[in-house]
């Protein structure tokens, strides 16, 4: 037995050695060289931790050599922190150990008593067992199999969702009221990750009604199309998805530009997984030529039903890559319930799944119950607590556990290559040599995984940052500097050089005319909206040190592929309201006689409800100062955001600084005066929020109503230099001097997933 274990350990070590290093590995360093390398590494890591904003945040770091087991660096490693999506490392490890890499999901299609010769059945039953990977394309393949098995006519379609319990959303999801795709519910019968794509196209000419198409289409959806075609290049769109009985109501507001080619897609969650699956199946059966005479119903499969077809998923090792590389919250929660059903008996539940994970951590890894907190499998919101030392212990365990090590290591993103690390660590020694899981929430950033240093030594590490203020960009840069420092250990330049290159945010360079000429080139590339430019733009963004030019490059990346959330992430991290970016870009705009670069794209994201973009727009409003042109541009921008994302704007105003809120509300009042609509969506939402269940939200909304009423009155008054009558506009919803009208019953738009920041990811 000991010989067998030794062979397994040697095999796992060989696999790790093959997976982690890229390229030839140098000869092992001497003891003195290793001590010197590690001392240089510790010095570099401490330097990063002493920089703002890491210095004023809660940070936990633990790094350990996989070669000799030595802890090479630790900092607050036992403090329990919110790990965000690093929890997926725990979920996937437990699933590998309990389900096995060859595990497959079955989805059964049955009839009673059996399929007759004429192919006509009274009821088609579909029994799901949690497969998270069924897509419309796979379901079309199943429909073809049913056709070739002889099925020609169906009465009712009964969808059996009983393998999981009725609790669709795990603990932590209730902290966020959102229809974004990453909030998708669980279901034993699920389709397209329980999200739907809404495609938007302009009409034939400015002013014409836009086109809204669902993918996949079915009777499950009720579409309220309020989309128009605009004359401007800007896109201002809000899409909401809400349950409506057994159906889903999709409301589309805003406008798309007439000149933009192609469709714009927005992904939203659905709320009734079995009905979504069943209605799509009904549509596909009809498309294939089969008659469906009855209805789609939720029910149980009778024991006497006979199987017509079983649709099997890929093996678990394939599904694992979608979980970790793309940080899929949906797959993580499906796995948690699957472990509960398989390990504790059906129906699978979140509680049962967590019990299975806790047993794995205690029995296999050696992490005792009660020393951490795990409530869900995805890491979404404020529901979990782990320490850096605990996550590192898990990583070390999985790296030597045969036969799970290769599947586990290959599932996490590779720095500079794929997944959520595709655009991180560029230009550093970590590219191709670091594999890690990211984690991102408001005030939380994490990175845990494996790295091979330039000197050939292999490390596991876990880094978590909590409670930081402001943008995530500087925190991410700090974590990347920590990882790059480990990768550079043993190189000729050493870890300090990696820290200097990645932690340095750059500084303004060159005369404004020279900077404007460079920016014009990148603006022209962005206007082409051509994905073939992405490689060049990413290289330029990586090598550019001027913050203003980097911000323009980030916008061009986003405009070249607005569907890629990583491009939006780059823009949000690169663009700031400071003088080094927004201030200098206003100067560039005057030189080039264009709108301030970046603002249009930021407003586009904000108009769709993107939380970070909304915060950035309010910061930009506060940074306009006394610049009349900048104020006018931001007033128009806030008016557009107020139309498509009114409730989100109120929430963002509440979270903003007093100075930014004052400036933004003044500019917003001007925009509302220009709109001149008593039924403007913003006034409706503001009235609705005054009756919110949260007393703080209600109080803020009432105060904002009063403030805006006063500012609108001031904006309507004639200026001394103008003379004449004030602009004739409709009075606002209410305020200090007017009664509050009845609350509207209309629905308010939630955040669009056009370019989400993928919380938890």
Show the helix and strand layout.
Blueprint: H1 2-19, H2 31-49, E1 58-65, E2 71-75, H3 87-99, E3 106-111, E4 120-127, H4 136-148, E5 153-160, E6 195-201, E7 211-215, E8 221-230, E9 236-244, E10 247-257, E11 264-269, H5 273-288, E12 291-292, E13 296-298, E14 306-312, H6 316-325, H7 329-344, H8 350-365, H9 388-400, H10 405-411, E15 434-441, E16 444-452, E17 458-466, H11 473-488, H12 495-503, H13 512-527, H14 534-543, H15 547-560, H16 565-574, H17 579-592, H18 599-607, H19 611-622, H20 628-644, H21 646-655, H22 658-675, H23 681-689, H24 695-716
Parallel strand pairs: 4-5, 5-12, 5-13, 8-10
Antiparallel strand pairs: 1-2, 1-17, 3-4, 3-14, 6-7, 6-11, 9-10, 15-16, 16-17
Helix pairs in contact: 1-10, 2-11, 2-12, 3-6, 3-7, 3-8, 4-5, 6-10, 7-8, 11-12, 13-15, 13-17, 14-15, 15-16, 15-17, 18-19, 18-20, 19-20, 19-21, 19-22, 20-22, 22-24, 23-24
InterPro entries: Beta-lactam/transpept-like (IPR012338), Peptidase_S13 (IPR000667)
Protein name: D-alanyl-D-alanine carboxypeptidase/D-alanyl-D-alanine-endopeptidase
Pfam family, one: Peptidase_S13
